[in-house]
Amino acid sequence: MKISLKDTSKRFQRHWIFRNLSYDFTAPTAYALLGPNGSGKSTLLRIISGMQTPSLGKVEFTYNDKLIENSEAFQHISFSAPGQEIVEELTLREFLDFHFSFKKPLNGFTVADIIKETGLTAAADKPIGDYSSGMKQRVKLVQAIFSDTKVLLLDEPCTNLDQQGVEQYRDWMDKYAKDRLVIVASNDVREYYFCREQIDIEAHK
């Protein structure tokens, strides 16, 4: 899988967040989008995911040398961000059953297995709305990491996690991200320690 940014630019009103960004992301490699708060990391990640459109330029998706329509790219992508909305009226079990009804889980995993991975088995039948912020972040991470997709996009993945949660995240990355195209938007080295390539958004103002 390859994702190509071609002179990709984003502007809010008269302010350019970033300009003329051209870059190829190829699997299996992990990339870090770096920069201070407000630099455009999250915006670029959402553009790559298809959630936002660039002001100028484009994003292309290629698999086995074949161009994939942007409208079809979502099925190859998993996404997690702290501000991501999840259906908090559902229990964890209901939410994961729903999520994995339209995205396949990683090979060999069932919903029960994934709940066990979260460490939230005792709360699996409670509404997600009753969870702490750290517990909710684990839910957002597992729905992305344990989806069988070629691309994994993570925006500040350790937000609201305690030390145990950070160690759990590191374990998941070590085990389940090696053969994928991973892009992490972060300014915290704990979140992108495994990324071989780093892109400074500030260099594209």
Features:
single chain, 205 residues, alpha/beta, Rossmann fold, five-stranded parallel beta sheet, 9 strands, 28% strand, globular
Helix content: 25-40%
Main beta sheet strand tally, sense and closure:
5 strands, parallel
CATH topology annotation: Rossmann fold
CATH superfamily: P-loop containing nucleotide triphosphate hydrolases
Quickly give the structural class: alpha/beta
Strand content: 25-35%
User: Looking across the biggest beta sheet, what order are the strands in?
Assistant: 6-7-8-3-9
> Rg to the nearest angstrom?
17 Å
Q: What do you see in this structure?
A:
This protein is of the alpha/beta class and about 200 residues long. It has a single domain, classed as Rossmann fold, CATH 3.40.50.300. The protein is built from 7 helices and 9 strands; from the N terminus they run βββαββαβαααβαβαβ. It has helices spanning about 40-50, 70-75, 90-100, 110-120, 135-145, 165-175, 190, and strands at about 1-10, 15-25, 30-35, 55-65, 65-70, 75-80, 150-155, 180-185, 195-200. The strands form 2 sheets. The protein has a 5-stranded parallel sheet, sandwiched between helices. Helix 5 (about 135-145) packs parallel to helix 6 (about 165-175). The mean pLDDT is about 95.
A few lines on this structure:
The protein is 29% helix and 28% strand. By secondary structure, the chain is of the alpha/beta class.
List the helices and strands and how they pair.
Elements: E1 2-12, E2 15-26, E3 30-34, H1 41-49, E4 56-63, E5 66-68, H2 70-73, E6 77-80, H3 92-99, H4 111-118, H5 133-145, E7 151-155, H6 163-176, E8 181-185, H7 189-192, E9 197-200
Parallel strand pairs: 3-8, 3-9, 6-7, 7-8
Antiparallel strand pairs: 1-2, 1-4, 4-5
